[in-house]
């Protein structure tokens, strides 16, 4: 009689508990979608949509060359489907140059941030890839859209070096005018004038 090839009872009871987490990981990996969203306050939906389409059709990369870029535009659903292949020759010190290639299957959808009442873009990579690569590609796309949109209309430029000279208080800490100039009285009171008598 040949030896039994059946699984022993204790091992048989352990299999479902081991397979469930593996199945969950396999399902998540098969889905392979990573999404990142960014809100664009101060712009209309039409402005953001136009910039989205332009950035998808003519992407700009600093360190990659575009080998292929196919863009499907769904005007009614405000959705973009992009297939893109980028390539580069990666050179590091003390190593041979290495050819690299990345293939992207992306979806960009114009959404709405109800809390801020502003347009938003949902960027989804529809493939299995390193999440950090997706985030970098999403940030590159969002930056290109912002560059195409330009500054928000009616917004004043922000100073990055602190208050400017025009924002400074015209009086010193003791309340006296600086540089010998008279301070403007905003209280509406008239100060008595002094007249020099001969």
Reconstruct the topology from this structure.
Elements: H1 9-31, E1 33-39, H2 45-57, E2 65-74, E3 79-90, E4 98-113, E5 118-126, H3 131-149
Antiparallel strand pairs: 1-5, 2-3, 3-4, 4-5
Helix pairs in contact: 2-3
Tell me about this structure:
With 198 residues, the protein is of the alpha+beta class. It has a domain at 29-149: Alpha-D-Glucose-1,6-Bisphosphate, Chain A, domain 4 (2-Layer Sandwich), CATH 3.30.530. The chain is 28% helix and 27% strand. A 5-stranded antiparallel beta sheet has the order 1-5-4-3-2.
- Supply Rg: 31 Å
Second-tier CATH architecture of the domain at 29-149? 2-Layer Sandwich
Q: What class do helices, strands and sheet pairing give?
A: alpha+beta
Helix and strand element order? HEHEEEEH
Query: What portion of residues is helical?
Result: 25-40%
Q: Number of DSSP helices?
A: 3
Low-confidence stretches: 25-30, 159-175, 177-183
| Share in β-strands | 25-35%
Shape by Cα distribution: globular
Largest pleated sheet = 5 strands, antiparallel
What gap, in angstroms, lies between the N and C termini? 140 Å
Within the CATH hierarchy, at the fold level, what is the topology of the domain at 29-149? Alpha-D-Glucose-1,6-Bisphosphate, Chain A, domain 4
What's the mean pLDDT score? 78
Task: Output the keywords.
single chain, 198 residues, alpha+beta, Alpha-D-Glucose-1,6-Bisphosphate, Chain A, domain 4, five-stranded antiparallel beta sheet, 3 helices, 5 strands, 28% helix, globular
